[in-house]
Amino acid sequence: MFQFRSKLHGLMKELTQSVSNRYLHVERKVKVNDLDINIVEGGKGEKSVLLMPGALGSSWTDFKPQIEELPKLLPNYTVISWDPPGYGKSIPPKRKWGLDFFQNDARCAVELMKALKRPKFSIIGWSDGGITGLIAAGRYVDNIEKLIIWGAGAYLIPDEVIALHKMKDVNKWSPRMREPMEKVYGEKRFAELWSEWVDAASAFYGEREGDFCKQEVEMIKAPTLILHGKKDPMIAAEHIPYLREHIKGARYHEFPEGKHNIHLRYAEEFNKLVAQFLSEN
Q1: Contact assessment for residue 110 and residue 140, using Cβ atoms and an 8 Å cutoff
Q2: Rounded to whole angstroms, how far apart are CA atoms 90 and 176?
Q3: How far apart are CA 142 and CA 119, in angstroms?
Q4: DSSP 8-state class, residue 211
Q5: Average pLDDT taken over every residue of the chain
Q6: How far apart are CA 102 and CA 169, in angstroms?
Q7: Which of 62, 173, 233, 243 is surrounded by the fewest CB atoms within 10 Å?
Q8: Is the Cα dihedral 220, 54, 201, 174 positive or negative?
């Protein structure tokens, strides 16, 4: 009897460890050309999905509930999150700006997934990561299987430029909004980096009539899910009908009380919607 119980205990322990290891996330650096890109990887599935963070964002600041829960909901997927070049732990290098910084991130993301031997993958992109996702899906049609975005638009309008400049001084932010980024970059560098980002984003309006990626949006073939917080103060309402009109067959789901961070505020509902969409044939 004692031996039986001992064996049973050992089997239960192995099973628990096996299940735990399946969903355990691993953080590491991956060489992409001359860059060392930081990623967080969870799950053991054959299919792949890449989480793309927002402005100045990183895996843990932007996607903690997704990193921890999506592998459980998507057993056929490996869930990967990245820190784009110059953000989070993908420093050095210092972040490079210019009118091609979204396109550069999109190209780097595709090259990252190729380096991981996962050249075909889906994208979950928030805010800036949503813009990057739109570009990747439009430019690299053969690589992107499905696209999920929220808090993103294909262009910038004058009211958004004004709003960005009102937010440029991070000292006017609440401590709750500042602290996660200050932990990553330090107070001084965060303030500098945010100011640089506001100038870089605003330049699209002055030099490209606000166009981030209108051309790429027209080229998207991947099945697309657009999520939206109805009360999102960061993007103009007109972006949603524009994307729905120009991305053929795009699906739409709205969070009536949601703002910009619906994936954090409504993480359980958000994760279930994402998992359902990605699990469909």
Answers
A1: yes
A2: 24
A3: 9
A4: B
A5: 93
A6: 23
A7: 233
A8: positive
Question: Could you tell me the CA-to-CA distances from 109 to 1, 77, 274 in Å, in that order?
Answer: 56, 17, 20
pLDDT tens digits, residue range 4-31? 455 555 555 444 444 445 568 999 999 9
What is the token pair recorded at 272? Answer: 């279930």
The radius of gyration computed from the CA coordinates of the chain, to the nearest angstrom, equals 20
pLDDT per residue over 211-250, tens digit each? 999 999 999 999 999 999 999 999 999 999 999 999 999 9
Residue 249, Ramachandran bin (φ over 0: left; ψ between -120 and 50: alpha; else beta):
left
The rounded distance, in Å, linking the Cα atoms of 209 and 23 is 45
pLDDT at 24: 84
C-alpha closest to that of 50 among 74, 18, 24, 20: 74
Burial of 82 (0-12, 13-18, 19+ CB in 10 A): buried
Question: Which residues make Cβ contacts (< 8 Å) with residue 28, sequence separation at least 6?
Answer: 38, 39, 41
For the chain, how far is it from start to end, CA to CA, in angstroms? 49
CA 32 to CA 14: how far, in whole Å?
36
Of residues 40 and 6, the one with the higher pLDDT is: 40
Retrieve residue 77's tokens. Answer: 């997927």
Q: What is the pTM of this model?
A: 0.91
- Catalytic amino acids? 127, 232, 260
**Is it true that the peptide bond before 180 is cis, omega within 30 degrees of 0?**
no
- pLDDT over 60 (residue 192): yes
The neighbouring-strand residues paired with 35 are 32
The confidence score (pLDDT) of residue 63 equals 98
